Amino acid sequence: SLEDIRREEVEKVINSIGIGQMEIVKEQIKDFVKSLERRQNRDIHRVYDYYHILIQESQNFLEKKCSTEELKQKTLNKIEAIKTELKWKTNDLISKYKLNIQMEPITFIRIESKAPVLWIEIKRRKLSRLFPVTYNLITRHLDNLPCESCFNPVKPYYICDDKLHIVCSKCFKLCSKCGKNYCSVCFKSGCPKCG
């Protein structure tokens, strides 16, 4: 019944909206992020090539022209200094291209309207679960089902085996070690088989 639906605190609702919106923003700027990564990789490659030539020249000098121990030690110190500078330059480029997105709600409007709530029964194997679906009177369509992990109402949906959670393709994660999918609602810390 409708009385059984617990009204969530406003803060929890806002947090859920924020998580869902962040996924939508990431999807919208993915081409920009790819372009940024290309430019970053290009610049890092150029820096690496430049410093690698300097290191190679110093190593050639060390092998062919170093006659005294003092000169060898100076050349070795120079090579270490070049390697250290390469790390600094690489880290500097990474921080230069770092993208930091922050979202904060400016206003929050709560609109109350009467809407029919329909219950769907999710069945998988011997398990079943009821899930509420609302009919939107403004759009005259059923509201999309939200992913129960990221709250993004994007298709396709997957149903997990353990507790019949509705999850999107991003949250129905593929383990890089064992290659099996797992529900990120049930297992927030990672794949249950690989630990």
Mean pLDDT: 82
Side by side, the strands of the main sheet go: 1-2-3
Q: Which radius of gyration do the C-alpha atoms yield?
A: 27 Å
Helical residue percent band: 40-55%
CA distance, first residue to last residue: 39 Å
Secondary-structure element string: HHHEEEEEEE
Q: Structural class of the secondary structure composition?
A: alpha+beta
Largest β-sheet summary: 3 strands, antiparallel
Number of helices in the DSSP assignment: 3
Unreliable segments of 5+ consecutive residues:
1-5
Q: Report the portion of residues in β strands.
A: 15-25%
Number of strands: 7
Shape: elongated
Summarize the structure.
The protein is α+β, with helices and mostly antiparallel strands and 195 residues long. The chain is built from three helices and seven strands. Helices cover 42% and strands 16% of the residues.
Task: Describe this protein's structure.
This protein is an alpha+beta fold and 195 residues long. 42% of the residues lie in helices and 16% in strands. The chain contains 3 helices and 7 strands, in the order αααβββββββ. It has helices spanning 10-28, 30-64, 69-96; strands at 117-124, 127-136, 141-142, 157-159, 166-168, 172-174, 181-183. The chain has a 3-stranded antiparallel β-sheet with strand order 1-2-3, with no helix packed on it. β2 (127-136) and β3 form a beta hairpin. The longest helix has 35 residues, at 30-64. It is elongated and about 90 Å long. It starts with 9 loop residues before the first helix and ends in a 12-residue tail after the last strand.
